[in-house]
Every structure is written in C-alpha cells, then in structure tokens.
Design goal:
This protein is an all-alpha fold and 111 residues long. The protein is 78% helix and 0% strand. It contains 6 helices and no strands. Helix 2 runs parallel beside helix 6. The protein is elongated, with a radius of gyration of 18 Å. The N and C termini lie far apart (64 Å).
Amino acid sequence: MLVQLLTTPWFAVPFGLAIGLGLLAPLIWSTRLPARGKSDIGFIVVMGAVFGGMIIAFILLLGYRMIAPAGSAYFGLSLVGAYVLATGVYTVISIMRYAKPGNELPKETRR
C-alpha cells in the first residue's frame, strides 16, 4: 500500500517539494547570525547548513529509490528542484538585504 502510494506522481511530486522547501529552514535560521554581528561563525554555519541540506537530500533520494524505485524520478526532480531553486532565491534575497548602502554588516570589535 505504501509503495503504491509512493510511486504515484500525485504524491511523489508534492512530497518532494515539501521536503525540498523544508530543507531550507536551517539555512534561513543560520543566516540570522551575520546580522547579529557574529559574521565569523555565521558564514561557517551557513555553509554547513547548505552542505548538510545536500547530504540529507542525497540520503532521502537513496532511501526513496530503495523503497519505491518507480516513483523516485518524480520525487528526486521535485526535491532537488525545490531545494536548488529555493536556495538560489534566498541567496539573492540575502545578498540584496546586505548590499543596501545603509544596511551593512556590523563591524567586529577587535581587542
């Protein structure tokens, strides 16, 4: 029953889109660190969130392929498409937010 549900495109595509957009949440949470003046650790955490999202997506793709190989193409394309598109859009939004003349990153105080 579950395998039949996972192989249908009507379930696999929305499920992949939801998971792909859900993987963006750690990236959104981690981009708040540079805005708080913690830019040194913030960029490392952002890179870790992007790389971690790709690893989790890869594991999910392999798991889905093992459970329902017939629906893995629909799930995989929607998962990767949603994750890449949402990451790109959020990157552009973040760059535009920090690139405004009056909205610069806070300077670090060095001792």
